[in-house]
Design goal:
alpha/beta, Rossmann fold, Arc Repressor Mutant, subunit A, 2 domains, four-stranded parallel beta sheet
């Protein structure tokens, strides 16, 4: 599922050359990914993060809710920690950057299809550092009323990102971010961004003191 036709078609052609895989559908948007998955019932989906309409993160979350058996591998240009964590929270089983070689992509697909998890070599050190820092209270436990997307946005707020930067990071429009922030304020019973950030950092979100 990718909105760039040349990349999507090239990837599909490379995958089709492997005797173990058959490409049953392609999609250029998050909504189309949901529709095509419902129509074809694949075993494995390759998902970009930045898609028109709903993001790849949200599409991943919805697909796994509707099709728990599905395996999803993310292929993206985004190599930042927030995107990696958001993909993992959504349930992705693998995360590769688009610069990966064909052989690396196919090995990852085979591993994910067999039930394993794959994260490209560029992401391994990031994961190790992130897991080492996870000794604090998980946001899901601290804020059980927030949705997964609201927790992602609160995390980015706590990291100091502006609404526009958050919108760009999550591949949504700024108005959508503001709507989510309004819901976050209501659920946390705070009246402004500063108070929300204090609550978030107390729960372990955002940058932590060394």
């Amino acid at each position: 599922m990718d909105d760039h036709p040349l990349f999507r078609e090239g990837l599909a052609a490379a995958i089709d050359l492997d005797d173990h895989f058959t490409v049953v559908a392609e999609a250029a948007s998050g909504e189309a990914a949901l529709t095509e998955t419902a129509r074809t019932d694949p075993d494995l989906v390759v998902m970009d993060l930045c898609l028109p309409g709903i993001s790849g993160i949200e599409a991943t979350r919805r697909l796994l809710t509707a099709h728990p058996h599905l395996r999803i591998m993310v292929m993206t240009m985004s190599e930042d920690d927030d995107s990696l964590l958001a993909a993992m929270r959504a349930g992705a089983h693998g995360y590769l950057l688009k610069g990966a070689l064909r052989e690396e992509v196919l090995r990852a697909l085979h591993t994910v299809a067999r039930g394993g998890a794959v994260f490209g070599p560029q992401m391994t050190e990031r994961l190790s550092a992130l897991f080492a820092a996870f000794g604090r209270t998980p946001a899901k436990e601290a804020f059980p009323t927030l949705t997964a997307r609201e927790r992602d946005i609160l995390d980015l707020l706590a990291a100091g990102l502006t609404y526009r930067q958050i919108a760009q990071r999550l591949c949504v429009v700024e108005k959508t971010v503001r709507n989510h922030v309004g819901a976050i304020f209501s659920k946390l019973q705070v009246h402004d961004r500063a108070a929300a950030i204090v609550r978030a950092r107390d729960a372990g979100l955002g940058p932590q003191p060394q």
